[in-house]
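lol ok so funny story. i was supposed to be doing the assay writeup but got distracted and ended up predicting the structure for this chain instead. priorities right. anyway since i did it might as well share w the group, maybe its usefull for someone
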Amino acid sequence: MTSRNLSPKGARRREEILEAAMRSIGEQGYRSTSLRGIGRMLDVQPAQILHYFASREELLETVIRRWDERSERVVAERARGDETFLDVWPDINREHTLVPGFVNLYTSLAAEATDPDHPSHVFFRERFRRIRRLVAVDLANRGLGPGVDVGRAALHLVAFSDGLQLQWLIDRSIDLGDELTFEIARLFR
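and the output, tada:
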């Protein structure tokens, strides 16, 4: 069910469910979050949650969308100054480590969505394209060296960032922000 089809009361309930899911993932992690657990938080049955979200995958994709929206607001706020996406991106990745459950959800759901039949396949394909465009525009504006393909460089930076997040889930001593900053700076040497 989309939010367009909901009454104001239904839209509020959908938002409550989404916030409860985000809280559960943040506190307990992705693997420990279930529709039953979210339902307990809200004193509703899992079937009621599925009235507002077609599936668990749709709920989780919506969590990722909300997480992205919050990150985009940070970028927009800081871009009012003289910072660009590439300036802010390492800090956002560093902030993500404060909520490991979201990093785990993102990497797990992205991996599952590689299947073209997965409900979130299109979302992740478009998300990767959008992020690569942001990075490519920023790289082009900064003026990479002659002969450097900004599209390819953007592809590599996004792959680097996502791979780094996966490694961080296994080894928390990795500083996502520092490593991404290093890799971005390396492009301009």
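The chain has a mean pLDDT of 90. The CA atoms of residues 63 and 69 lie 10 Å apart.
back to the writeup now i swear
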